[in-house]
């Protein structure tokens, strides 16, 4: 079969490789019908994920058709059209029982295109098929269904739910690629007061406006000053970093509302001094669509009273006021 193979930083090829075969009774072999490229794949190709070895078939999200199953597989059978999740789950370990499948301790988690061959191929072996592939209705097009393999779950769970976006919030999304755009689209389900998109590319900012962003600003045009102006100096309630580079994360820390600790899962791969703030020229026009607040008034700063719902990862939510600053860092595919 043909597959996209990683050969080292900056080196990939579309080449012949052996067809995958069942290795465990819980495996399924799936013919790939639709696949997409994740930002994590780009990080791998750049050499930022050293545990991915040369010779690895890339990719961790796809839609396909089951062609073979192991003896222990019960939920799908050959001929079923399925969604292949970016995360595989054994379903038995502590973290899987807590629905934290990305931390699976029994050989699951992010393994496709990482520690085993992935989905950017004609066929793929999927481990723990009962919990890692999901039957799809025939009415759902593959090019839409594939967005549910990684992009939308990452954006909604990590960005919106764990960010604890609430009615009346100001939300800033730094990075308007697929993940950032999905955050913008799904944040609207929680009725924020405004959503602000930051990116370098005008085309991506235009897409952000189409998907519901109320204000957009170029990353080089002083987004910190725009957020300060739009929030009367308070800062944003929730800031989502959807780029994956140190400069973007540092920008987020300057835009989030103060009042509590910031959570950071790991230091970005390279640390640099943050660039100085650049004031916005009075003559520069940022894209901003005025909105009326749902309560006909600007939201008051959170005073810390009352219980705060826990985040989806078992920790308190990252928010403003006494319950923390609202920076969320998204690592696609993790």
Number of strands: 14
Main β sheet profile: 6 strands, mixed
| Distance from first to last alpha carbon | 27 Å
Instruction: List low-pLDDT spans.
Output: 260-325
What characteristic shape results from the CA principal axes? elongated
Radius of gyration: 21 Å
> What class would the helix/strand composition place it in?
alpha/beta
Secondary structure blueprint with pairings:
Elements: E1 2-8, E2 11-16, E3 28-35, H1 39-46, E4 56-57, E5 62-69, E6 81-84, H2 94-97, E7 123-126, H3 129-132, E8 133-135, H4 142-145, H5 151-161, E9 170-174, H6 178-187, E10 194-199, H7 202-210, E11 215-218, H8 223-230, E12 238-241, H9 246-255, E13 287-288, E14 327-329
Parallel strand pairs: 9-10, 9-12, 10-11, 12-14
Antiparallel strand pairs: 1-2, 1-4, 3-5, 3-7, 5-6, 6-8, 11-13
Commentary on this structure:
The protein is of the alpha/beta class. The protein has nine helices and 14 strands. It has a six-stranded mixed β-sheet, sandwiched between helices. Strands 7-3-5-6-8 form a five-stranded antiparallel β-sheet. Strands 2-1-4 form a three-stranded antiparallel β-sheet, covered by helices on one side. Helix 7 links the parallel strand 10 and strand 11. The protein starts with a strand and ends in a 5-residue tail after the last strand. 45% of the residues are buried. About 20% of the residues have low confidence.
Tag the structure with descriptive keywords.
six-stranded mixed β-sheet
Question: Could you give a quick summary of the protein structure above?
Answer:
The radius of gyration is 21 Å and the shape is elongated.
